[in-house]
Amino acid sequence: MLARQLLRAGNLRHTSRVFSSSQVTPPAPSQSPLEAAYKKYVVDAKPWEKPVIPVMVTEGPERDEKNFPRPTIKLHADPCRFLFIPESWFDMLYNKLGVTGPYTLGGGYIMYLFSKEIWVMDHDLPYVACLFTVLAGTYYKYGDLIARYFIDNMEREENIMKNWKLKNMQAHEDNIKMFEKEIWRSESQKEIFVAKKENVLMQLEAEYRRRANEVYQQVKRRLDYQLQIQTIDRRIAHKHMVNWIIDNVKKSITPQQEKESLKKCFADLQSLAAKA
Amino acid sequence: MATKRFLKSSVNWAALAERMADSPQKPEFLAFKAKCDSYFQKVAALPDEPPKIDWKQYKSVSPEILDSFQKQYESFKVPYPEDKYSHIYDSAAEESKVTVEKFQAFCRLGISRANEHLAIWKAMPPIESMSLGEFGEWLPTFLPDFVERPTFWPHTPEFQLTEQDEEEWRQKLAGIEKGEH
């Protein structure tokens, strides 16, 4: 159909570039981020950049869908006999003339043409036979190829249109999914603010802990200092006392006592030597 | 202690990460999470309360000094830093709630619009069996609009004037008007 011409050659952008009608653009929603996007992509867009906006077309109330349904496009020919005679003709004559009826009718008709010399048997008649031979030869040799070429073209165009429609529908479904995901995602915004508030509280807590630890460390350091002073004091007093006692003892020893102790020592040594 | 102490994070980071998994704002989110983690590590680096001082260990210190130390230490209360900033986030959260509402309304509008269009696409007869007139009725985007937007034959973009061309022509015309040609 002609719509196919619009969507031809697989490049649908070409057709979408052609024109657009200004009367079908739906009104833009006011005061929303959609408005800017709508203005950019729909109102201010070049004709060929405009989005494809379908419009619902409803049939009138008098349309008789039951008796006159929508005609569908016929993509393949009706079955034929002898390559070109429609099967429906044979069906039509079957009731009147039986199985051989159409052949009788056709053969009789040709005999009639020959008999009355409407179709004159002249020198060119053998060419008819030659023509049919060549046609048959072409059919059997290249028939499939030629048919495939046309059927492929037809199917390609059909697929282009079907896929284009599917692509548009898929785009809308993807959009819906994307928007739903964004809504779901935006619900986590309050969590982010809780986290931000917690960051403040965490910093306060860290500061408090640092202060408490500082107080503890300082007090402990001073206590340790006191403890060390006490121990050093005691050690110095101890050492001083020992020194004092030793000095006093040394002073109290007289030379007489020293001599006596020496003598005593010699006597001890001699007695030890005698024993040995 | 004026403010409540921070004890445990109430943010469900796993759920947040799941939501942000394939978001375009993921790098920002990860940076924010790293910052939060660094604050938490600072808190976790020090104990909840400082360890108790073992006063018996310092018996040998003169009891007057020890007593004064103990009394002062135990009576001293470490001041908790004043919370000046968290109220900012309360008001910011309120503000963001409005923004989020707006954004969600926008998304819902998009969904409803997409649903409308999808319904039309579903009701449309197959394009391959349409006539040209029907095609124009269902998809008026492709209808020629000769009045509002005339185009040059053969009405494909390659043959249309671009903005640059139009600018050039405007300048040329201006030049002609001045008599410069």
Automatic annotation (TrEMBL), chain A:
Name of the protein described by the UniProt record: ATP synthase subunit b
User: What is the top-level taxon of the source organism?
Assistant: Eukaryota
The record's section on Gene3D superfamilies has: 1.20.5.2210
Coiled-coil annotated residue ranges, if any:
169-214
The record ties this protein, via InterPro entries, to: ATP_synth_Bsub_B/MI25, ATP_synth_F0_suB
Specify the species.
Bemisia tabaci (Sweetpotato whitefly)
Summary of subunit composition and partner proteins: F-type ATPases have 2 components, CF(1) - the catalytic core - and CF(0) - the membrane proton channel. CF(1) and CF(0) have multiple subunits.
Any one GO cellular component localisation term in the record: mitochondrial inner membrane
User: What does the UniProt entry say about where the protein is found?
Assistant: Mitochondrion; Mitochondrion inner membrane
Instruction: Indicate yes or no for the key word Ribosomal protein.
Output: no
Q: Name one GO molecular function term.
A: proton-transporting ATP synthase activity, rotational mechanism
Q: Does the keyword Ion transport apply?
A: yes
Main localisation, per the record?
A: mitochondrion
Main function:
Subunit b, of the mitochondrial membrane ATP synthase complex (F(1)F(0) ATP synthase or Complex V) that produces ATP from ADP in the presence of a proton gradient across the membrane which is generated by electron transport complexes of the respiratory chain. ATP synthase complex consist of a soluble F(1) head domain - the catalytic core - and a membrane F(1) domain - the membrane proton channel. These two domains are linked by a central stalk rotating inside the F(1) region and a stationary peripheral stalk.
UniProtKB/TrEMBL annotation, chain B:
Task: Give the family this protein belongs to, as stated in its UniProt record.
Answer: Belongs to the ATPase d subunit family.
Q: Cite the entry's keywords alphabetically.
A: CF(0), Hydrogen ion transport, Ion transport, Membrane, Mitochondrion, Mitochondrion inner membrane, Transport
**Residues spanning the membrane:** none
Please explain the role this protein plays, according to its UniProt record.
Mitochondrial membrane ATP synthase (F(1)F(0) ATP synthase or Complex V) produces ATP from ADP in the presence of a proton gradient across the membrane which is generated by electron transport complexes of the respiratory chain. F-type ATPases consist of two structural domains, F(1) - containing the extramembraneous catalytic core, and F(0) - containing the membrane proton channel, linked together by a central stalk and a peripheral stalk. During catalysis, ATP synthesis in the catalytic domain of F(1) is coupled via a rotary mechanism of the central stalk subunits to proton translocation.
Where is the protein localized?
Mitochondrion inner membrane
Which coarse location class applies to the principal site listed for this UniProt protein?
mitochondrion
The answer to whether the entry has keyword Cytoplasm is: no
Q: Which organism is it from?
A: Bemisia tabaci
Protein name listed in UniProt: ATP synthase subunit d, mitochondrial
InterPro entries, sorted: ATP_synth_F0_dsu_mt (IPR008689), ATP_synth_F0_dsu_sf_mt (IPR036228)
Q: Name one GO cellular component term.
A: proton-transporting ATP synthase complex
Among the GO biological process terms of this entry, one is: proton motive force-driven ATP synthesis
- Which molecular function terms from Gene Ontology are attached? proton transmembrane transporter activity
